[in-house]
Amino acid sequence: MIKPGMMTCLLVALCAAVPVQAEQRAGTFKVVNGTVHVERAGVKEVAQIGGAVMQGDRVVTAPDSFAGITLRDNTRLTASPDSTLVIDAFSFDTTTHKGRLNASLKKGRLAVISGQLAKANPESVTYNTGTMTIGVRGTEFILEAAGE
């Protein structure tokens, strides 16, 4: 039988672990040129090199600006000037290489170099442009979306 004190410790440990996983970094800004914002949980911030990219983030590049993002599975995304990209879902297990990546290009252009997720599990990676959803079978491609 579990003692009441032990149960309390177990519950505290479980509750403490949940926010860490929920806020796990999907990737990192490797290049920020010009004015690039990241919108997270209703808050708009200026993107910075080395800054976090999280699941649910909306990355917005101004005209004459662009952003380079490397996700944890080594997927490389380059959002061109005047683009809006949303990381809808991202998870990646570094041991099994399982997980998923779902991203939406709301407007602009996005250059993609696929990482370990697409190579190990191509059906787990999709990109949405609003008019179509693309499943990844290649390693490098460019998406374009007219607008929101």
From TrEMBL:
Q: Does the keyword Signal apply?
A: yes
Q: Which residues form the signal peptide?
A: 1-22
Keyword Membrane among record annotations: no
**Residue ranges occupied by any FecR protein domain in the UniProt entry:** 57-145
What Pfam families does the record tag this protein with?
FecR
Q: Which PANTHER family match?
A: FECR PROTEIN DOMAIN-CONTAINING PROTEIN, LIPL45-RELATED LIPOPROTEIN-RELATED
- This protein is called what? FecR family protein
Originating organism: Marinobacterium stanieri
Lineage of this protein's species? Bacteria, Pseudomonadati, Pseudomonadota, Gammaproteobacteria, Oceanospirillales
